[in-house]
Amino acid sequence: MSNKLSTEKSSYLQQHSENPIDWFPWSKEALNKAKKDKKIIILSIGYSSCHWCHVMEKETFQNHSISKYMNENFISIKVDREERPDIDNLYMEALQYMGIQGGWPLNIFLLPNLKPFYGGTYFSPNQWYGIINNIIDAYSRNKKEFEKSSEKFSKDLKKSHSEKYSSKNEFSIKTLVNEIKIKFDYDEGGIDRAQKFPMPSIWNSLLFYSYHNNDQDLFNHISHTINKIIEGGIFDQLKGGFYRYSTDKKWIVPHFEKMLYDNGQLLELISNIYSITKNEKYKAIIKDTINWIEDEMTDESGGFYSSIDADSEGEEGKYYLWEYDELKKILNEKEFNLAKKIFKISKKGDWNDKIIIKRKFFESEKNNQINKLKKKLLKIREGRIKPLIDKKIILSWNSIMLKGILSSYQSTGDEKYLSLAIKNANFISNKFLKNKNLIRVYGSRINAFLEDFAHTISAFIKLFETTQNIEYLENARKLMEDSIRLFYCKKNKMFYFSGTNNEKLLAKKIEIFDNVIPSSNSVMFYNLLILGKIYNDKLYINLYNEMTKKLKNYLNNFEFMSNWIYINEINQKMINEIEIRDISYKHKITKEINSWYFPNKILMYNNRPNSDKIKYENSKLNIYLCRNNVCNEAIHSIKNLKNTITFKPFSY
């Protein structure tokens, strides 16, 4: 018998709709019932491609003894964190205040007033049954202790970031870079940890720093890290696309879910390093990843789906794993020997005796043979039962992927990528921007959060940079005006994650720190900088400067401030405003300039607002390099422009 999740659109909620638990979606009905019945709320948060969410759903939430006890004693609420990141962020922070490491599934116990008192992540059936029994027993005997505990956590949640995280020490960027270098894994790449997330925001920031500070050793480590990632099991070597993270130090054994936001950011990072090095292996990774996005992750209207599950047939990674004898049987001797060499196959396997396809790049590769081998293995793999695709179309994640595809086009010049990007931009314009209220998920009624506004603004800035279509810039500015109206906090000089038209929760949060996705405020920091300079808008410039002043309070760890540092460094290295007064070769010139590694630029053709004050020469091609509204003499060739603004600081 179905529960109240059966009418929800979320794939994650649908996965729990046949549980014997009387699950509610997050709703007034559920919250009012908890108050009326004076029952504790079990708030369980996850997402559709989460492996441990599946395990707990199967082992614990399908258990009839457990479900009977939950139904009698609790109000049980399920939340898809991808639909409601505001709820997830709030109660994940509460869990961390409890001294418990966060993750998903996130299971939090709340009083009827929504104040949290206990929580955790994955629980086995025995653990869960014990906990829910103990909670009901203790609550019946001593409600005041629960109220006291929940009140403390609620007060913690309402503290401002400056109260919680502000640093008394001022750190230079150089000091922070030197500190993160100490954490590097110089053997296997990345930061030295047992589990490794790609964290493209960190490497993008360090790439810019290394390039402009002539730090060869740092650049070498970034290249080494990217090479380890693209050669490891964390990249789908047959189809393309990156998995979420590696469970080991060597990037071999991933958690097999594929997330749209990871792949968008990694496309941008790899495009940047390709722009510098022109190494063809990076171009091949870009191609494979975008082909996968087109084949499996794109709606016919141009929207991008959110994720692919880690599990199939109830097992993590089953779709992607191979047996040694299986490969030996399906490949002829020549193919098998090539597979052992290229895909680093061994009889002992990589994980639970199974083989994960990895990759070894060689200088003189026989690409035809390798591609033929990949196609053969892929055809066999596609005959298996595939993991489910979550077809939820999330605005912020679409914008992140849009930026990644635009970066891929800029670095490679492949017109196919531009076509895909424009199709997605049209989808966003028609399905999201034309609504009275911007929504987060296509087809839902959930109003967009700051994350959605911030990434969409930056995506439309990049669209303008790429195409010089002024309409994209105007869309970005309109969204900026809406963002300031809905989210800006005058007291904190930052933007709230939830706006005035979002549901009011227990506390209103300001997202400062960068994580697997750059924080929404750091992206707004960039948007204010670029739009402020393009429009010479005093309000945007003032807001940017106010955020800059606040920034020093939090600069104590490069890892969690990487995008802030990147944007601050872009501005410190001077934004180069390139004014071109010739439209006859507009597409060709734009394409050439954008192919260079040159993040600290603004490129415009005869369409800069308030550009009439600049005195232009009469010539076939006039390029003006401007900084802070002061322009140099005209440059008359692309070659001379490149010599003026780009450099090759070190060897690749």
Commentary on this structure:
The chain is an alpha+beta fold and 652 residues long. The chain has four domains: 4-158, Glutaredoxin (3-Layer(aba) Sandwich); 263-309 and 392-572, Glycosyltransferase (Alpha/alpha barrel), CATH 1.50.10.20; 320-383, no CATH class; 576-645. 49% of the residues lie in helices and 10% in strands. It has 25 helices and 18 strands. Strands 1-3-2-4-5 form a five-stranded mixed beta sheet. The protein has a four-stranded mixed beta sheet with strand order 16-15-17-18, with helices on one face. Helix 10 packs parallel to helix 12 and helix 12 (260-277) runs parallel beside helix 17.
Characteristics:
single chain; 652 residues; alpha+beta; Glycosyltransferase
